[in-house]
Amino acid sequence: MNQSSLQLYSFLSRFSPLKSYKGKIMLVAFLGTHVPLLTLLFYFVISNSLTLAMTVRVLAIALLATLAGTGATLYALHYLLIPVLLTSATLQKYLAQNILPSLPTQFGDEAGSLMANTSRTLQKLDEAIHHMANYDDLTGLPNRDLFLERLRLALSEAKEDVHHLVIIALDLDRFHEINNALGRSTGDLLLREVVQRLTTCMEETDVLSRFGNDEFVMLRTNLTTLDSASALSQELLETIAQPYQLNGKTVHTSASAGITIYPFDGTSVEQLLQNADAALNQAKGQQRNTYQFYSSDRNSKLHERLALEEELRHALRREEMFLRYQPRVDLETGNTIAVEALLRWRSPEWGLVSPGKFIPIAEESGLIIPIGEWVLRTACAQNQAWQKAGFPPLRVSVNLSACQFKQKNLIEMVDQVLTETGLDPSYLELEVTESLIVEDVEEAIAILGQLHQRGITLSLDDFGTGYSSMNYLQQFPINTLKIDRSFVSHVGSNPNNAAITRAIIALARSLHLNITAEGVETQEQLNYLENHGCDEVQGYYFSGALSPDALTSFISRSTNYVDVEMERRH
User: What are the residues facing 514 on neighbouring strands?
Assistant: First the structure.
């Protein structure tokens, strides 16, 4: 059959009294049953074989028989059309009220198939619509709306039964980097693998939902102890942290987790989820692959951090940033041969803010890029000013953050600063940490190589606190190793720290590198470092961080560290 078979149906639809399908069928049935009567009437009209009385009698009998047959036919058709009419009404009701049909499915003819197929089709359609509205396309997990619905139900039950719930918010570490490096298809595969692993840690009543691109939330409704919440979080993190084999590549990722407990951390859906997110941010601020419980104290610190970040955005424009310089003393000559530029911030609202508080915020927010450039330019300009004032040439040391090191225009920016300030590259020292350069060894070698070719001194800061530098140290064009203050502070009392310090000095000697010790505060530490061949030291034993004018005075009167010590005694 095709649409041309609908000609009669289309023709009858033109007449307004025949708009209903049932009306069309009844008309056709009525006309069909009256054809014999009309034929007989026509015959008697044109024929003279019967008397008038006989003709009237025959016509009356035929008319009664026709009307009776028509009535019986229409009555039967009315009920035979019920499957079609019921199917039509069911479709209208589903479209208008979203009510699923209860049509019979046991009949095998065309009308029965119509009802059965309509019922099954609408049920599948309803399931598909429900799934699309409530589940994540990529992972098949409940979406945010469905999770909220189930959380509200769980809270209602928990209030009646007086039991605890735990909500764990999870966020994958470095997912954006994986997506950029390996492509979105690999990122999607990773998300599916993560979900499969998480489901192995779930109980039957748990609910796992995908809230965002790489963010998941789990609800456990039968929490027994706080320790079990910790154990579950640790299990989830360990499961996620196992290596993945995706498209022939080994992929590593980890996650951070934030935990809230009902009713301790909130009694409403909004409060619990908000606090879980706050706990997650706390965990991400600590380190990768860790979890944090929510606490109001930590949450207040988070608000403080956001307020600091907002103020920090305007600090350069308001000229609230300034530099202090800490001398580095040559142990052989006692002269100050370098200074380290240290960033400081005095906020009108917060006062003098600790670098340990605002520098991590600057790095996480990306504000360290303009701030770092300002530090470099200011330090180079100050060094050039000292030299023009006739002071002995010295290196100014500036720290490079991870964000700065990853800048595509880092080399161009350094060249521009040196050109603008007129400072000879040999009087600039750039400090990098070992954790920074081992993230991408080949890229680090290329960048450091370009800086080294320009005559810039390069130092490796906080040496000994990482784990990979020993393997790559020979490949990096490093001039100086800086021993971290955590080792120097206990060289006289901790044999392990003393052994590590000696080993670093010996390593630097074997590689023909200069060695600088940070955090020197006592005569004992100074004697130990001097006796074991350390080249340079810096710390409060000689001086803290000084203003440019104070450093000028310090350099003027300190020709060696003995003179410095005498000055300090007076």
Answer: 480
